[in-house]
Specification:
The chain has helices at residues 5-18, 22-32, 40-58, 81-97, 144-147, 166-180, 198-207, 220-234; strands spanning 68-76, 124-130, 135-142, 151-154, 188-194, 249-256, 265-271, 276-283, 286-289. By secondary structure, the protein is α+β, with helices and mostly antiparallel strands. Helix 2 packs antiparallel against helix 3. It is globular and about 55 Å long. Bound molecules: iron/sulfur cluster. Iron/sulfur cluster binds next to helix 5.
Length: 290
Amino acid sequence: MSVDLKSAVLELIRRSSTSLHPSWERAIADAAGKEDKDSSAGTVFSTILENIKLARDKSAPICQDTGSLTFYVDYPAGGRESNYTNAIIDAVIDATGKQYLRPNAVDSITGKNTEDNTGVNAPVFYYHQWDKNEVRIRFMQKGGGSENCGAQYRIPDSRIGAGRDLKGVRKVVIDAAQQAQGQGCAPGIFGVAIGGDRASCAKFAKEQLFRKYGERSSDPELAKLEKQLLDDINSLGIGPMGFGGKTSALEVFIASQHRHPATYYVSIAYLCWANRNGTLTINGDKVTYD
Ligand code: SF4
């Protein structure tokens, strides 16, 4: 590969941290258009949109919490994982020095910050070798406030009357939105996974957050549930930053995987409006960003 991997990843981080993807900027503009301009919700949306523009113009982070960092790397046969890891870690250290990223990696026992966003499982890496002859690196920055609003349910859940079916799934997702009450900087995006074990369910839910505004599930039943839940959550009236309003969720993305007959997990990965993720693709000498 003749591409300078570290430089390409550094640019991926810069773009992700400072420029909201047009799909999500449109989602926020659509939500703003539903509110009275002089209402609290209207004012919050205007501030968010102005902030997005300023961040892009100045190449400055969209939010002061640049989040925890996860890289999903798909690579062709013959690739070496340690080469990707080393280049990505170097890019993360550089990006922290350039202040695209705030130092967010803290030792869980001592509380000491490493100051460069590296440490044990920081960043988080997921590797997958695929049959394509190109490299795809997907990058997610997830703010701590939004991570705190995520949840995992084991259903049936008698507390909220959720059974082991899609009606039960609907109930737990609404419950998670109610519990959040606008914390984690609403309006947000709900990535929902059904099935698997606890760990795979949480991972699968988070991966749904790479989907784009308006991208419905290919499963008609799940696509229908996504639309229902979007209406359900938006009818709660929580609104942007919890100030009240018509939009509390920008999107709901649901996916399902097989499960053990005795288990039924539903994981909800919640992401704030500052949806900073991006994709870098390297094919020969060609580098593209999305
Ligand atoms: S939840 Fe999102 S928008 Fe709010 S402070 Fe954290 S990263 Fe920023």
